[in-house]
Structures are given as structure tokens and as C-alpha cells.
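Reopening this one. Same input as before:
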Amino acid sequence: MAASSNSSLSGSSVCSDPEDYQPPIWKSYLYQLQQEAPRPKRITCPQEMESRPKYYGREFHGMIPREYADELLGGAEGAYLIRESQRQPGTHTLALRFGHQTLNYRLFYDGKHFVGEKRFESVHDLVTDGLITLYIETKAAEYIAKMTTNPIYEHLGYTSLLKDKMVHRLNRGRTEPRRVTFQRDDKITSPLVRRSALKDSPEKQCSYEKIHNFKVHTFRGPHWCEYCANFMWGLIAQGVRCSDCGLNVHKQCSKLVPSDCQPDLRRIKKIFSCDLTTLVKAHNTTRPMVVDMCIREIELRGLRSEGLYRVSGFSEHIEDVRLSFDRDGEKADISADTYADINIIAGALKLYLRDLPIPVITFDLYSKFIQAAKISNADSRLEAIHEGLLQLPPAHYETLRYLMAHLKRVTMFEKDNLMNAENLGIVFGPTLMQPPEQNALATLNDMRQQKLVMQLMIEHEDVLF
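Same output, byte for byte:
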């Protein structure tokens, strides 16, 4: 068995071409242990128990003492029964024989059976999973503690190979670097002059780093962890799966996986209410398509529309636009032939931005921008806003930059649309900035600062971005 525990990566295929990459040989030690785990043996009660709950079977023995339960189990590994507690009538205990002793667990039922986090359709499944876990954690405690120390991510360049494969595929349609970082000239000392000298960095490409969106998952059939290459044991909830890219790992391994999630378009269920970074990485764009398409349509035929962004379109039509994007993506038809009223498109854009799970100005930076707006000195205030912008995630920054440039162009038609930077700030403040705690009073108190932040970003768009 010791030899099996150390086997693992021999025979793996490592190649320079990501397209030809083959996964490593998975480590079999934990799988072998699961096969060796004791099987459950139900100890049935010879007579019908009137007090038996309807969700238990003949394994229920009524109110019996622990000593008698021990005697009934007979020392057989994996034997189990259910008894009603003598100390707390109405509660139930699972008595399970393992490791030459009887283990007693408080047993619960809420539509499913459970003693811990996992919930099972039957007591038999619960016991089967429990025996597997007990056996593996007893036999391989030291192995499990060390199994993350030599992950295939690092040992075989697993991550970089997957990344290279993805980048190779994505770059087929990319013609130039996406740049959204800043560069300052340290020789410039005046804040105003220094802000005017802000520019995109020619050396760096935008890095849209994204953490994995792991959720507990039940795997059908044998599955191995894609971080440590070890078997994921148990009957249900054996590990976690990233709902954005599909990476499967142990729960303990998920804490060590790098923030390198590359979302799979097949897993993106909708456009609206989808995390901004997830969406742009899945579509390989710098900004969400909704923002690009709506702004393009508005600038094509709506810049002179009176009350642009202030006047609401019909909510039913705005909902139609949302459904169209969710269903058709970049093929959604938002032309004048389909939606003659430009306020519908403007409303759809606002709805998209408002429904983001993490606002464009992220929750963790909200207070920084609010405090910046409270600074009395105009130069220092702009400087503080700029510092906040530098801390935004790349996808959020690029979306905000593009939107502010658009709103600046909207103000150039103020004589026709009656929308200046202050009016637009009133509209977009609560859309792009939301406090971490959804407190109505706090939101009301911050409205003036929200409006001012947006107004300053629009008015000074050319030096802040």
C-alpha cells in the first residue's frame, strides 16, 4: 500500500504544445482505500416498533440503552442501528461499529438524513459514506495532510499548460494588447500637472485575474482532484467544482488553487446579473458586450435625445432587451427597427449596471470614493478619486473608463439633451456605487457624494482615466 501512496505521476505526458497535453496518471491510493472500507450492515429489529418514525426502517430499535445497542451490533465492523435516546426522548442516535468500538452520533432528519454537513436520501447511504470517510481518514491521516504539498499544478506545469492552451485559443482573434494600467512620471510634482500626464502603460497588458467560484459538488462515478491528483472519496459532496470553469478539486485543495479561473462560455447561464470579470473573461473582451453594444447604439442615434438616461423607457421593453441579451448574447438585436425609443436601450444599460452582483465601483472601494468626495480641496479630491480608480479590478476599471468617456460625449450635446455632468451624476451615482451593507439610510446620506464622484469622473475623464 505504501508504494501505491507514493505512485502518482509516473508516465505523465508533459509536452510543449498545449493542444497535445495529456493529464497525469491519477494517484490511486485513496481510491484503493475506499474500496477496502467496511460495508454497512443493518441490524434490524425483530419486532415492529410503534414509536418508529416513518422515515426510518427496521434498523430502528426504539428506546434501548447504549450497552444493549453494543450487544446487538456484535462487534461487526460496519454494523449499525438507530435507537431513541433515553436521556433526550424524541431524539435519535445512530450507533455505528467502527475501529473495534461503537460510535454514537446524534441523527437528524429534515427531509434528508444527516449527522453533519452532508445530507443523504437514506440512512444506508449516510452510513456508507461515513464508513468510507472514517476508514480513509484513519488509515491515511498523514497522507491526506501532505497531499497538497506536491500538486500537479506546479509539478507538471499543469496551470501554465492550461493557461497557454486557453490563451492560444483566445488570442486567435486578438490583434493588439488590452491596456488599462497607469503610468506616472515621478519627476512631475504638481498634482494637476501629474494627472494630466497620466497615460496607459505601454509595457503591461491588462491582467484580468479571477478567483474560482467553487461550490460543493456531488460527482457521479470516480473523480480525481485536478489540483493534487488524488481521489475524491465518499458517496456525495466529495469535493468542489468551479461553476465558472468546471475545475474539480478537494475542498481543502480549493484554498490553494491560484486565482486563474478561465470561465467557460457553456457555463455562463446569462449575461445580466453575471459577475463582470467572469463575463469578460468568458467572452475574451475588455468590457461586457452589453456596455459596448448599448453605448454604440445610443451614440448612433440618441445623443441629442432630450433627457437621455433621465427619461425612462417602458419597463416591459427594457425587460425584453435583457432577455434578448441573455438568450442571444452579442447577436441580440437592439437596432431602431426593433426598439425605436432610445430610452429603452439607455434603460437596459442602466439595468445591466445596476444588477451586477459586484457594482462597477466595488463594495470594498465604496467608502474610499465617498471619503474622497468629502475632501474640500479640489486638487486633493481628484487625486483621491484617482487613487481609488487605480485599485479597481481591471474589468471594472475598463468598463468605467469606457462609460465615462461616453457620458462626457453626452454632455457635449447638453443644448439638445439637457444632460450635463451633474444630471448624469445623479442618475449614475446609485447605479455604479452601492454600499456594502444595503442600508437605505446610509444610501440616502451618501447620495450627494455619489453624485459628486460621478460628476467629477465625467468632467475630468480625460485626466482621471
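So the earlier flakiness isn't reproducible anymore. For the record, Strands lie at 41-42, 79-84, 92-98, 101-109, 113-114, 182-183, 199-200, 214-217, 239-242, 248-249.
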